[in-house]
Design a protein that fits this description.
Largest interface: A-B, 114 and 121 residues
Shape of chain B: globular
Radius of gyration of chain A: 24 Å
Structural class of chain B: alpha/beta
Number of helices of chain B: 18
Shape of chain A: globular
Distance between the termini of chain B: 62 Å
Largest sheet of chain A: 7 strands, mixed
Oligomer: heterodimer
Structural class of chain A: alpha/beta
Strand content of chain A: 5-15%
Strand content of chain B: 5-15%
Number of strands of chain A: 13
Radius of gyration of chain B: 27 Å
Order of helices and strands of chain A: HHEHHHEHEHEEEHEHEHHEEHHHHEHEEH
Number of helices of chain A: 17
Distance between the termini of chain A: 85 Å
Chain lengths: 428, 456
């Protein structure tokens, strides 16, 4: 009876539609323009559409093994076996998994960190690095509405989108030196000095994306010292801990230096690359406070921003992370696996540089091995990149960023030859 | 000894002093020159001892979430007869959370598949999941789907779908006001406000009848500005459990279309309300059938028990496929700076189940079982109150639908029930039927009886 009533009503609706009754025929969205394609993700789309057997994808920032295949870490598979069938899927608290947060903080700040013991860190589980940055940006806007964010040139493109959507005004500071393909340290210090006291700065903790150029330890100490004088707020985006050098402790050195100097930092952590959990969207946002009471207050306010965005964060990835980090055996396995990934990339850097040099290039390619992490800022111009794509079916972003994770022993020679080919005309 | 006490009482002071000391022994020439530079005086906010105060020092603690606060209080109570009717998550007859068998099966398939990877999903999420979700809510034969007029993106459960939809509207729709029912889920106003919309209310619940204030609803929507956005609970209204009848939905549809009001459906209980997926989607389908546009937020939290996995979808039904393509591209720009792309695990479970007809049927059976248990709790509570001779009309308990019942009890009565009978519920009189069992119904009935007879 109910269903025939439904059908009757739907028939009436359709009749109304046919007669154009009750509403206009124009769409509300007729004026909506097609959005520009994401520059990074567009590269993979183009790669997939290419039929050439020689094609190489060094665009996307996801790890590939030497066969060019994505990898699920053994420690992750094991953790998932323990989850499936055993745990329920109830809502996490708004701030996420307490266990995962504890382990994340230990990873970032040291197992025995006094600061963790003092409970001075406000921390919430976030939707990977993006989500952590966005929560912080929203928090910054809400509680320090007059503040701005200083972002390095260049940076991951989405950083600009994140702070823009949070309505926090942006400034930039000089970072990459195109001539040396290294750090423009003097200019960076200059810009830090000239920023008004108490400015917010976005710093890449290690393996700067997209350049792979990191300050040295001494340079980090100077930066920290200058930040102290200027009372700037250091916000670290740490997306590659363990993935850069192979050693998570070493990759967290910049953060540790700043903490030793007494900075109350903010930090966005991601487990996308170092645990290969990309699509699980697992991360952590932490912010240091004066005391435990303040930390509770700040955390409660971060939760108030998460609640109207997604209520509470996804449980699966958080369980994987906390199981791995809290189990000695699994953690040890993870450390081996993350080192193996980092080592493969470091090996590919050496090999690529050697190959190009052996082809007789007059240009300097030492930046390939000086830079660190997933990306190499090759110095190739957009025109050279276009030639690589059109003539050689090699895909990368037009800023010349090469994802070393996409380089394998199989495509190394071809890639080196192609790079040499498009750059030899420019050798002086 | 004394020093130790001081450092115990003031650990942060100790830490500050030691870092200051470290600081004063700067060693590099660059740092020395920086120290001598008069342009670099320490910031006024650096504090007199040189250590910086937190930039967030003035932040006060946010109030506890009223709903989650109920569970916190319940957990603290040592009474053996305590009952938690606060949280909106399904519980079995034994009072335990439930993971559906079919979900476990899907999980095992996923975990045992060596070819599965954890790569980033596209910004719009898992494509299969999106198509199947649209079919689920709009019906496989829906002309909107056949004509490719629906843009569907995977989002973080219902909340995430509402937020992304709200942000899209705030950027691209000509009206920035959304009308939401009075009352509604506590998070709705915050979601839409942060999305950039202005929130207004339309009358919905009638405390006198404990049913729908249909007249008030029609009046308020009738006087809304042309083109305003209207939030509609597709079924099983939260928190009241009061739904319009199909005839009432048809009247609402006609009124809204005549005023060009834009429907935004929140569908968090499809299949969970009546036990039938199709019946619970009728409100949405009559709107789509008339060829007009609308938005729909879907959640799999309750109907697949995937709560913490955060699985949902936002669909935008457009007049043409060309428009749908452009709309989708703009929705991506909302998502990318929020979290880049959605979590893969829960959506994979849903897609696995929806695309396999055997598993789909299993799901329907388990879903109906959950809905039936809740319906039977309603009946039991109503019958028990009737037997007790509890004063008042309690028929709304069986007329209302879904997880929640708006009992009509006032906050004083609720406080009494908590104090004397250890019944935990929100102060607006809402009870989660999912938290009841045959064993606890009598106790609740006793509590209600006592509350209405002793407290006015």
């Amino acid at each position: 009876m109910a269903s025939s009533m439904c059908q009757g009503i739907i028939r009436n609706s359709r009749r109304a539609a046919a007669l154009g009754r009750f509403m206009s025929t124009a769409s509300w969205w007729g004026h909506v323009e097609p959005a520009a394609k994401d520059p990074i993700l567009g590269v993979t789309e183009a790669f997939l559409a290419d039929a050439s057997p020689d094609k190489v994808n060094v665009g996307v920032g996801a790890y590939r093994d030497n066969n060019g295949k994505p990898v699920v870490l053994e420690c992750v598979r094991e953790a998932e076996k323990r989850i499936a069938g055993n745990l329920n899927m109830e809502y996490l608290p708004m701030g996420g998994s307490i266990k995962m947060i504890e382990e994340s903080l230990k990873l970032a700040y040291g197992d025995d960190s006094e600061l963790i013991k003092e409970k001075r860190i406000a921390a919430v589980q976030a939707l990977s690095g993006t989500g952590a940055c966005r929560l912080f940006a929203d928090f910054q806007k809400r509680f320090l509405p007059d503040s701005q964010i200083y972002i390095p040139i260049p940076t991951w493109a989405n950083h600009h989108n994140i702070w823009r959507d949070a309505h926090v005004p942006q400034r930039t500071f000089r970072y990459y030196h195109p001539e040396t393909k290294g750090l423009d340290f003097a200019a960076m210090l200059d810009d830090i000095k000239n920023a008004p006291n108490g400015s917010f700065f976005l710093l890449h903790a290690c393996a700067h994306n997209p350049t792979g150029v990191d300050p040295s330890e001494d340079q980090w100490r100077e930066i920290s010292h200058l930040f102290k004088i200027k009372n700037h707020f250091p916000f670290f985006d740490m997306a590659y801990q363990g993935f850069a050098s192979g050693d998570p402790e070493r990759d967290a050195k910049a953060i540790r230096i700043f903490l030793e100097d007494g900075h109350m930092i903010g930090c966005a952590q991601s487990f996308a690359k170092n645990m290969g959990l990309y699509g699980q969207r697992v991360g952590c946002l932490s912010s240091f406070c004066e005391d435990d009471i303040q930390a509770v207050a700040v955390k409660s306010q971060l939760q108030q921003l998460a609640r109207p965005m997604y209520s509470n964060p996804p449980i699966h990835g958080a369980l994987v992370v906390s199981i791995i980090l809290s189990d000695a055996e699994l953690k040890s396995l993870w450390l081996k696996e993350v080192k193996a990934m980092a080592d493969r990339i470091i090996g590919m850097r050496s090999a690529l540089r050697e190959n190009i040099e052996n082809l007789g290039s007059n240009l300097s390619w030492e930046h390939i091995t000086n830079q660190i992490g997933m990306f190499c800022y090759s110095g190739l111009t957009p025109e050279q990149v276009d030639r690589l794509t059109n003539d050689f079916h090699i895909y990368m972003t037009r800023n010349g960023r090469i994802s070393m994770a996409g380089v394998t022993t199989g495509n190394l020679g071809y890639l080196a030859a192609a790079i040499h080919e498009v750059t030899k005309a420019s050798s002086s | 000894m004394e020093d130790a006490n001081v450092s115990q009482q003031f650990p942060t002071t100790n830490w500050r002093l030691s870092t200051l000391a470290n600081h004063l022994t700067g060693h590099s020439p660059a740092m020395a020159s920086v120290n001598q530079n008069p342009a670099l005086s320490p910031s006024p906010t650096a504090g007199s001892n040189g250590a910086a105060a937190s930039v967030f020092a003035s932040i006060s603690q946010a109030p506890e979430d009223p709903i989650l606060g109920v569970t916190v209080a319940y957990n603290k109570d040592p009474s053996p007869v305590k009952v938690n009717l606060g949280v909106g998550a399904y519980r079995t007859e034994e009072g335990r959370p439930l993971v559906l068998n079919v979900v476990r099966k899907a999980e095992q398939l996923l975990v045992n598949d060596p070819a599965r990877v954890k790569e980033y999903l596209p910004i719009t999420g898992l494509s299969d999941f999106n198509k199947l979700s649209a079919k689920l809510i709009f019906g496989a034969g829906s002309p909107a789907i056949q004509e490719n007029r629906v843009a569907t993106v995977q989002c973080l459960s219902g909340t995430g779908s509402l937020r992304v939809g709200g942000e899209f509207l705030a950027r691209h729709y000509h009206e920035r006001t959304i009308y939401i029912p009075q009352p509604t889920w506590g998070n709705h106003p915050k979601v839409f406000t942060l999305a950039g919309l202005a929130v207004k209310y339309y009358r919905y619940y009638d405390p006198a009848t404990r049913g729908l204030n249909f007249h008030g609803l029609l009046e308020d929507l009738g006087s809304a500005p042309t083109g305003a956005i209207v939030l509609l609970h597709a079924c099983a209204h939260n928190p009241t459990g009061v739904d319009p009848t199909l005839e009432q939905w048809e009247q609402i549809r006609q009124l809204m279309r005549s005023k060009e009001l834009l429907p935004f459906f929140d569908s968090a209980y499809q299949g969970f309300a009546s036990g039938s997926l199709d019946a619970d989607a009728q409100s949405v389908r009559i709107f789509v059938a008339d060829g007009g546009e609308c938005l729909a937020a879907q959640s799999y939290a309750k109907n697949m028990g995937l709560y913490g996995e955060r699985v949902g979808a936002l669909s935008i039904v457009c007049k043409s496929s060309d428009v749908a393509v452009r709309v989708e591209s703009q929705v991506k720009l909302v998502i990318r700076p929020m979290y880049s792309n959605p979590p893969i695990h829960g959506a994979s479970i849903v897609a696995t189940i929806l695309k396999n007809s055997e598993m789909y049927n299993e799901w329907m059976v388990e879903l109906k079982m959950m809905a039936d248990r809740i319906i039977s709790m309603r009946k039991q509570l109503f019958d028990t109150l009737h037997e007790r001779g509890t004063p008042g009309d309690w028929s709304h308990i069986v007329k209302q639908i879904g997880m929640f019942t708006f009992t009509g009890l006032n906050s004083e009565q609720v406080a009494f029930m908590t104090r004397e009978y250890h019944i935990y519920m929100t102060s607006d009189g809402r009870i989660s039927m999912a938290g009841l069992s045959s064993k606890t119904v009598p106790h609740l009935a006793d509590a209600i009886h006592a509350a209405v007879t002793r407290i006015n």
